[in-house]
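Minimal example, chain plus NDP.
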Amino acid sequence: MNIYTEADQDMTSITALVTGATAGFGHAVAERLIRDGYRVIVTGRRTGRLEALRDTFGEAVLPFTLDMTDTAALKALPDSLPSGWQEVDVLVNNAGLALGLDPAQTASFQDWETMIATNVTGLALITRALLPGMVARNRGHIVSLGSTAGRYPYPGANVYGASKAFVAQFMDNLRADLLGTRIRATCLEPGLCGGSEFSSVRLGDDSKAAEVYAGTQPIVPEDIAEAVSWVLSLPAHVNINHMEMMPVCQASAGLAVKRNIA
Ligand code: NDP
Ligand code: 8X3
């Protein structure tokens, strides 16, 4: 049970906002938080999928169409939310994407701009928009999706990995700014994860995406939902700063050496 103060026992009074709730992790996190008893604002660009969540779970859900690259819409939060939904206690910064695996010297400029706009600028602005209310109420928890790609380099990760390093450092810096408040900040850093649209979006091809997971048992969205639910459920004096998650079939296995370079 999530208890922000000793007196705060009523889960239905806790409002969460999950970005990227139309697919993958965000969808699983939203479902899990609804089942845990939160009221959940589900956001993303595909409105039909957000409305389907409300159709399934009823009035505990508010569908709110939001493009993370629409900086004006992000800055307009929380006032642009309907009355009764403006006091967001939990922000799950999940929306994000990787595009391509080309090396930096040939990668698409447009792909880089989209990843930075979504994973960096969008995440920072929505956090900035919702923080003043959290501080004024002295309650809140921001959980952001970083990645092992933000910690360990690999070929083709270039801007995607750097965007996730931003997320990790941003969350650490939030902790510094929020010290003295009861607001918590957590960065989840998963590795190989299947069961979402991530690799199809990145590679633009479902069969190539399937190859990423061939012969593995990756982390799945429900595992991420479990982790989010757990960090939120901890006693109010405990903050999980970072949580790195990999499937058992994955490890950071050392530096690579390329021999006989021409
Ligand atoms: P999915 O592709 O399945 O889901 C991505 C979500 O982000 C969708 O709901 C999508 O919604 C939303 N999104 C993307 N761009 C925008 C935008 N411009 N505006 C609003 N919403 C947007 O990916 P995952 O669930 O796998 O990934 C979720 C997060 O976890 C990402 O930040 C990703 O980087 C991170 N992550 C993923 C890992 C993996 O291997 N899958 C591992 C580590 C971290 P819509 O298209 O409807 O707008
Ligand atoms: C997703 C994990 O290894 O594909 O962030 O970059 S990885």
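The pocket of NDP (ligand 1) is lined by residues 20, 22-26, 44-46, 66-69, 94-97, 118, 145, 147, 190, 193, 196-198, 201 (CB under 6 Å). The chain has a mean pLDDT of 96.
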